[in-house]
Specification:
The chain has about 200 residues and is of the alpha+beta class. The protein has a single domain, classed as 2-Layer Sandwich (Beta-Lactamase), CATH 3.30.450.20. Helix content is about 30%, strand content about 25%. Strands 1-4-6-7-2-3 form a six-stranded antiparallel sheet, with helices on both faces. Strands 5-8 form a two-stranded antiparallel ribbon. Helix 2 packs antiparallel against helix 6 (about 130-145). The chain is globular. The chain starts with 8 loop residues before the first helix and ends with a strand. Residues about 1-5 and about 195-200 have low confidence and may be disordered.
Length: about 200
């Protein structure tokens, strides 16, 4: 994966440190309830064996309560969980009216096939509908400040020509140094296929 798709590492880490201060459980629960779509849980227990495996792998790398370094992530270790997955990196500069934005640095093969496009290299604000961007920024803010994985489940609607996609999701934080979160890796499991709109 690309090591630097944003500005310099120093600026990126400083931005992550400034905007990702740790929060306690009460604040994390408050933020989770405020996410505009779907359900997000701080104590992830998955129906999907793939997501359970990915969570256990993250936990093995999180020594002494630290956040694993993204340089320790070897995608084949996550087996099939990486196929419906994507990783984003926090952008140091303000690109959406002073709000955080993220650039996609990895997108799994099956996810690319499902949505019909590879968004690697694009900003979240460039490739997702406004409501989904709002939700995703809120999810990432929670995970960056909670510094632990969360579980999501619900329905994607009207994204990349797909409608009514039921999903289970694992969002994991990854750090530069075991502390400051600069990347987030999301693994997805779809429980039902949606319908692709005619792209004409």
């Amino acid at each position: 994966m690309t090591a630097n798709l944003g500005t310099g590492r120093t600026a990126l880490i400083e931005h992550a440190r400034r905007t990702g201060a740790p929060i306690g459980r009460a604040k994390a629960e408050e933020w989770a309830k405020a996410i505009p779509l779907n359900t997000w849980e701080l104590d992830p227990v998955f129906q999907s064996p793939k997501l359970t495996w990915a969570l256990e792998h993250w936990q093995r790398l999180a020594e002494d309560g630290t956040c694993p370094r993204h340089t320790d992530l070897f995608l084949p270790d996550l087996a099939e969980a990486v196929e419906n997955a994507f990783m984003v990196e926090l952008m140091a500069e303000s690109t959406r009216e002073g709000r955080d934005d993220y650039r996609c640095v990895y997108m799994g093969k099956e996810l690319v096939e499902l949505v019909g496009v590879d968004n690697t290299g694009q900003l979240v604000s460039e490739c997702m509908p406004p409501l989904f961007v709002e939700q995703y920024i809120a999810i990432n803010r929670l995970v960056r400040c909670w510094r632990r994985p969360i579980r999501g489940h619900g329905t994607f609607e009207a994204w990349q020509g797909m409608n009514n996609i039921h999903f289970e999701s694992l969002v994991m934080p990854w750090s530069e140094d075991g502390e400051v979160v600069t990347r987030l890796f999301t693994c997805l499991e779809f429980s039902a296929a949606g319908t692709r709109e005619n792209r004409g």
